[in-house]
Amino acid sequence: MILKKIHARFYRYSVGFFVALFYPFLYYYSRKPERYAVMNQLRRYCSFCSSTIAGIFYRVKYEQPIDWSRTYIVCPNHTSSLDITAVNSALKNNFHFIGKEEFLKNWALSIFFRSVDIPVNRDSKISSFKAFKKGAENLKQGRTLVIFPEGKIPDDYPPRLNEFKNGPFRLAIELKIPIIPITCVNNWKIIWDTGLELGGRPGISDVYVHKPIETTHLTLDDADALKDEVFNIINQKFISGKS
Fold first, then answer.
1. How would DSSP label each residue in 165-212?
2. How far apart (Å, rounded) are the C-alpha atoms in residues 161 and 154?
3. How far apart, in whole angstroms, are the C-alpha atoms of residue 71 and residue 75?
4. Which domain range does residue 106 map to?
5. Confidence (pLDDT) at 5
6. Would you state the pLDDT for residue 238?
7. DSSP designation for 220
8. CA atoms of 38 and 63, how far apart (whole Å)
9. How far apart are CA 223 and CA 111, in angstroms?
10. What are the Cα distances from residue 81, in Å, to 38, 90, 134, 224?
11. Which residues span the membrane (predicted)?
């Protein structure tokens, strides 16, 4: 257990190290929205380096080829702090996250959440409204939106998929933007949440990118059905990966 806790802290500090190493470049590309695409490339590189040095590698499989010239709403499940870097590895276009506002206090992540990403207070309806409004604006400008529809990491261990929030599915239908479900199959086995309680270990993170679900034919009355469809797709893959 001691070695696992040391590994989790090592991974955490490796993220901070590479963000600090590339900070001058991240800062420059964070100053204007037209530079965010390069900032995301640097984010991918930081994710790759910090994971690799900790012995964590990402094995990404796609159900079918993705047209990365299009804009999407990406909905991954959430069981680990590795999920963000796993999604970074899977996406090949310009993107941004909606995430908890606590990241504004994390010096390694705050540069992203003060520029390309969108912080949200999950307990405030006003904050959620503003976050989704900003997300809609960014989507219209061609930036893919990543949002964890569970809203938080589940408390259960081993984890199970929490109920999804409605927001991303209503937004996808309103803007007629396809949804890409992503299943992070086993990140919880490598690092549980932040890893500081149960620790972490080297390993291969399996990430499965499902085929996009089109929404052009849907109305807001179909939002619950779309939510259930995405939930079932992710849950089926997640359960099969736990066995």
1. PSHHHHHHHHHT--EEEEEE-SHHHHB-BTSTTT-B--EEEEEEEPPP
2. 7
3. 13
4. 2-242
5. 85
6. 95
7. G
8. 27
9. 33
10. 23, 15, 24, 28
11. 12-30
Task: List the beta bridge partners of residue 208.
Answer: 61, 183
Tokens of 15: 């993220």
Strand partners, 44: none
Tell the residue number behind the tokens 């929404």, with chain if given. 215
Name residues of the chain where pLDDT drops below 50: 195
pLDDT at 145: 98
Q: How many domains are there within the chain? A: 1
Rounded Cα distance between 187 and 34, Å, is 32
Residue with tokens 């991918």, as numbered in its chain: 44
Cα separation, 17 vs 236, whole angstroms: 36
Q: What is the pLDDT of residue 157?
A: 76
> What is the SS3 assignment for 142?
coil
Quote the pLDDT of residue 194: 52
Q: Give the residue among 82, 126, 76, 127 at the shortest CA–CA distance from 104.
A: 127
State which amino acid sits at residue 2: I
pLDDT for the residue 197: 63
CATH number of residue 224's parent domain: 3.40.1130
Task: Supply the pTM of this predicted model.
Answer: 0.94
